[in-house]
Amino acid sequence: xxxxxxxxxxxxxxxxxxxxxxxxxxxxxxxxxxxxxxxxxxxxxxxxxxxxxxxxxxxxxxxxxxxxxxxxxxxxxxxxxxxxxxxxxxxxxxxxxxxxxxxxxxxxxxxxxxxxxxxxxxxxxxxxxxxxxxxxxxxxxxxxxxxxxxxxxxxxxxxxxxxxxxxxxxxxxxxxxxxxxxxxxxxxxxxxxxxxxxxxxxxxxxxxxxxxxxxxxxxxxxxxxxxxxxxxxxxxxxxxxxxxxxxxxxxxxxxxxxxxxxxxxxxxxxxxxx
Length: 274
Ligand code: ADP
Ligand code: MG
Fold this sequence. Notes:
The protein is α/β, with parallel strands linked by helices. It has 2 domains: 4-61, no CATH class; 64-244, P-loop containing nucleotide triphosphate hydrolases (Rossmann fold), CATH 3.40.50.300. It is built from 13 helices and 7 strands. The strands form 2 sheets. A 5-stranded parallel β-sheet has the order 2-3-4-1-5. It has a two-stranded antiparallel ribbon with strand order 6-7. Helix 9 (176-189) links the parallel strand 3 and strand 4. Helix 3 crosses helix 6, helix 7 runs antiparallel to helix 8 and helix 9 (176-189) runs parallel beside helix 11 (213-225). Residues 112-113, 167-168, 198 line the site of magnesium ion.
């Protein structure tokens, strides 16, 4: 049976899920002798859930995340130098409320980007504005804006996000202008918005990365004032996957991909990965 008035009201109020489900749910509620309030609450809950889902999907796209991963799939057992409790606490995002920063340090493949993405996804869920960018893309963009006399506008854009994720600090050295522009960004965001940063270089090497020890000190001074530093030491998860697939050279050449359960105890996938 169609309900043109209900359909029209739902259309005007943007309640697509209610329009879709109202009748079937009503029949169900009647057969179960559900109270009206239960019926109505569940219907609105479905609408709210669908809306949140749409919001999250579009914000994830806008945030420019390199992949979608949460802590759910993060294997803490693989990386014992990471304090799981600390990471779960950070995923509660009090530091974002306080415009503080989080910095993940460690060698390639240990999960730095994954953890930043997980923080970003958590922040999107609670409707914080988030943007993810590699330091290379960030400084290239700032530099271009500088050359085109529109640096203040770009700086304003990057300053607006509640959480700005800056990935891969340290892989490439910066030129002086780039380091200066990055300093301007860090200074503009200081105590106004949060940075989640990853680097494969310890802070003592940042002078080299930024090509200027004074600038490095000035940047670190602001970054670290309100910050949590997560130092990760351990094996690359990427290489573990390669080892599993048998793509890494062992002492006697490439290893054949082992099959689960073959070779007796100590010769399975896990022993290779260690
Ligand atoms: P990094 O940024 O430190 O170089 P990534 O976070 O990009 O490393 O991790 C490399 C890949 O391995 C990603 O696909 C990531 O999701 C995965 N990964 C890394 N560490 C873990 C882990 N402990 N549990 C599950 N996946 C992991
Ligand atoms: Mg990374």
